[in-house]
Amino acid sequence: MRLESICKQLTIPIQINDTELFAEMNQQARSLGHGRFLEKMGDILQKYEHDEPIRPHYPNKMQFIYMRDRQTFTFAFFPELLPIAYQVGRAIGATFDAPRRTGNTLKDALTSAIDVAHKYDYGLQEIVKVEENFAIYRTYECADCYGMANIGMCICTYEAGIAAGALETVLEMPVYVKEVRCCANGDPYDEFEVFVKD
Description:
- This protein has a single domain, classed as Trafficking protein particle complex subunit 3 (Muramoyl-pentapeptide Carboxypeptidase, domain 2, 2-Layer Sandwich), CATH 3.30.1380.20.
- Helices cover 46% and strands 14% of the residues.
- The chain has 8 helices and 4 strands.
- Strands 1-2-4-3 form a 4-stranded antiparallel β-sheet.
- The two termini are 23 Å apart.
């Protein structure tokens, strides 16, 4: 598929004052996470405003709040965008994250960048399992979803795409990364499965 054809399909004329669309999206926002999402987001913002820690081991930053609320609302309203976000992540991973990774094996490529997320306050990552063509890694205190209400979705699709793009660039083989656990899905951490195809 070509980027231009995706852009054409996404071009939908929407009136800036579309009251019906606004009312429907407003109602959907109020019902996310069984009605708990907005309350949880409000709790997080209140902690930020009172300089109380949102995540146990990372500082509060407005970029963190800004990023997560827009991303989460967007994916909650339009889960159809998740595959596009994954592909955007792949492009970012291939061009921006790949230079931080080294090695000729999946284990080396994962290990070489496992501390990057922690260094930049994204979260704490750990490699759970590594085989020749398969791996599992986790992110604790994920900047995208830690502390959120359960909205029944895995939303860290950029992270999965970035890892895939970086790994396939370094390994020079196709890589697919799938998020199988997410704090926004009621899990205590994010978990990603990595598949390398010869």
